[in-house]
């Protein structure tokens, strides 16, 4: 674990936390250009520090996040985090990225692969670039793997329907593309699961209504009734679990172009993450 200060509310107000975050970003595995402010994906120190300062407040004071298994993350070199996801808002991804940045002894800036529809949303797409996240196209994904970054994917992604309070933590079927990249680039996979994210969303039902790049619209006790304020998450307690790395590429490096074999491997990973999630939720049979 990193030497994380016990920040008080005043530290968020007087710039102490932002200074800490900016220092973590500059000392992370991000390679900045000559002027020291931007990297090849558009990550910008000042903007990223502002956003991660806000996320650190949410992480420490609002969601009260606990990390488990942080030692399973590689301190350098590539790694692919594959996690369950509460569809619509990527609060879980934000908390994973914040925890890794501020809690690891050597800070790392995670690269989340976000759906390309995000690029159509004003402001949000710029925010994603400035904080180091990557729009999911072949060229971008190839570059983050070749760079040996820590990559985060939600393999149910934008296709997953919002989970209601009646079917929380249902793990939808995984897509295949992330595994093909992991095999080709000999990247270990870190199975990851998050609890607390579905309670933060508190979705009553999801309806098929494309909006701002998303395919489904969640109805919650406060959204859309309170307008944009209804998207404020409920203050649920988050726990994030990192499992031991899985080196599928050692036995399956030549199977990246075999969809049937990739499906078998992905289904195995799906079952492993489901088992982690069931254990975390205390619902093991």
Produce a short descriptive summary.
This protein has a single domain (9-281), classed as Glycerol-3-phosphate (1)-acyltransferase, CATH 3.40.1130. Helices cover 36% and strands 15% of the residues. The protein contains ten helices and nine strands.
Annotate the secondary structure layout.
Layout: H1 9-13, H2 16-26, H3 45-62, E1 66-68, E2 79-83, H4 91-103, E3 111-114, H5 124-130, E4 134-135, H6 138-146, E5 150-153, H7 177-184, E6 189-195, H8 197-201, E7 205-211, E8 214-219, E9 239-242, H9 249-252, H10 259-281
Parallel strand pairs: 1-9, 2-5, 2-6, 3-4, 3-5
Antiparallel strand pairs: 6-9, 7-8
- What is the terminal separation in angstroms? 33 Å
User: In DSSP terms, counting alpha (H) and pi (I) runs of 4 or more, how many helices?
Assistant: 10
Number of strands: 9
Q: So, CATH architecture?
A: 3-Layer(aba) Sandwich
Helicity range: 25-40%
Strand content: 5-15%
């Amino acid at each position: 674990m990193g030497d994380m200060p016990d920040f008080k509310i005043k530290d968020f107000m007087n710039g102490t936390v932002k200074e800490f975050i900016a220092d973590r970003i500059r000392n992370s595995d991000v390679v900045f250009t000559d002027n020291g402010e931007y990297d090849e994906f558009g990550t910008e120190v000042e903007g990223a520090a502002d956003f991660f300062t806000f996320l650190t407040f949410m992480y420490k004071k609002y969601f009260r996040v606990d990390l488990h298994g942080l030692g399973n993350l590689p301190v350098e070199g590539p790694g692919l985090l594959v996690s369950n996801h509460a569809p619509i808002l990527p609060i879980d991804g934000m908390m994973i990225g914040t925890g890794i940045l501020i809690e690891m002894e050597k800070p790392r800036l995670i690269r989340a692969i976000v759906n390309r529809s995000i690029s159509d949303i004003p402001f949000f797409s710029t925010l994603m670039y400035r904080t180091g996240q990557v729009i999911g196209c072949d060229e971008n994904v190839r570059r983050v793997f070749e760079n040996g970054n820590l990559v985060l994917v939600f393999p149910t992604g934008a296709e997953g329907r919002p989970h209601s309070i009646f079917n929380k933590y249902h793990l939808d079927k995984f897509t295949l593309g992330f595994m093909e990249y992991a095999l080709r680039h000999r990247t270990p996979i870190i199975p990851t699961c998050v609890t607390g994210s579905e309670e933060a969303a508190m979705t009553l039902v999801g309806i098929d209504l494309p909006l701002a790049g998303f395919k489904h619209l969640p109805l919650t006790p406060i959204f859309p009734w309170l307008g944009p304020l209804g998207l404020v998450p409920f203050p649920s307690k988050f726990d994030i679990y990192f499992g031991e790395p899985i080196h599928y590429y050692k036995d399956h490096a030549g199977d990246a172009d075999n969809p049937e074999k990739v499906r078998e491997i992905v289904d195995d990973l799906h079952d492993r993450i489901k088992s982690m999630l069931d254990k975390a939720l205390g619902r093991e049979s």
